[in-house]
Amino acid sequence: MVTKQQLIEGPRDKCHVVLLGAGASRAAFGKNLPVMNDFVQTLKLRPLIDEAGLDVGNEKNFEVIYDQLVCDSRHENTARKIECRIREYFSGLALPVEATIYDRLLVSLRPTDAVFTFNWDPFLFDAYRRNYGAVPLPGIFFLHGNVRIGACRGCGKWGARSVICPNCSQMFVDVPLLYPIGKKDYSKVLYIQSVWESAKLFFREAFTLTIFGYGAPASDVAAVQLLRLAWVNEERPRTFEHIEIIDTATQSDLYDRWSPFTPTHHCHFTTAFKNSHIARWPRRSCESYFYPMTQGKPCEDFPLPPTDNLAELQRYAADIARHEVG
Ligand SMILES: [Zn+2]
What we know:
The chain is α/β, with parallel strands linked by helices. The chain has two domains: about 5-30 and about 100-145 and about 200-320, Rossmann fold (3-Layer(aba) Sandwich); about 40-90, no CATH class. About 40% of the residues lie in helices and about 10% in strands. The strands form two sheets. Strands 3-2-1-7-8-9 form a six-stranded parallel sheet, with helices on both faces. Strands 5-4-6 form a three-stranded antiparallel sheet, with no helix packed on it. A hairpin with a 6-residue loop joins β4 (about 150) and β5. α7 (about 100-105) crosses α8 and α9 runs parallel beside α10. The longest helix has 16 residues, at about 75-90. The chain starts with a helix and ends in a 5-residue tail after the last helix. Zinc ion binds near residues 154 and 167. Zinc ion binds near residues 154 and 155.
C-alpha cells in the first residue's frame, strides 16, 4: 500500500546535504550543550585561559579565543589542556533511550544524502550506530573531528575510536578537534582532508541543502569558502537551488546571514526541525521540492510520527525505504 501519490512518484537520483552546527545539538538536547558563545563558561575553561595569562577582554566566542592561544607557541600547553577538557566533556554525553532529533534526521535521509557536522558531541555518531541496520542511512562526516571517532594515519579509513584499521592493521588514532579559524589547515590530518574534499563534492552536487543550527559562517573562513565555492558554484551557476535553514534566530537576521549564499532566493526558514522538509517528507525531501516544480501543484506531506519511540520511528522510515531501489 503506497499512497501519498506513490510517495511523490518514487525516489529520484537527487542529493540532500545537511550541515549541522551547535544549535542543532542544543535544539535536540537542551542547554547543557554549549554553543561557541557560552562554551568557555559551560566547559569551565576560564581558569585555564587566565592561567595562560591571555587577555581576552569581553570576547566570548571560543573559536576567537582559541585562535589567540594557538597563535602564540607559549600557549601550546594550555591549548592541549583545553582540547583534553573538550574531549572529556563531550565523551561523557550520551543519547537518551527515547528517539531524538538526530534519530529522526538520520532515518529521514537516504544513502545518497549526506550529513556534515561541525559538532564534537557524540550524538550524530551514536544515533547513526543505533539506527544502522534498521533503515538505510545517509553518510556522516565530521568537519572538525569528533570525540567518538578515530582514523587510520596510513590510509585515512575511520570508525569508532580505538579500533584497528582493517586495511593497515594499525590502531585508529584520535582525530584532532581544534583548528584555528584564522588559518585552518585541514590538510595535515588525512581524515579531515578527505572529509573537506567530500564536502566540496557533495555541496556542489546537492539538490537541496539544509543548514541546521549553524550560526557563524562569517568567522569561519574555510566554511565560507566551502559554501561559496561549492554551493554557489561560480564556474557553473545554478539555475535553482533550495536552501532550508532551521534556526531560532529572527527571520531578518537569518536573511542577512544567508542571502549571500542563495543567489536565486529559494531560501526557506523554519524554527523547528519538525516543520522542515526532511521531517515532513522523510526520505523524499528532494522530491518534495522537485514534484511541485515540475508538476505545478503541491504534494501532500507524510510527516514522521510524533513519537519518541525509536522502534516505531524506524518502522515508519523502513516502510518508506521499501519503495526505494537498491
Ligand atoms: Zn589504514
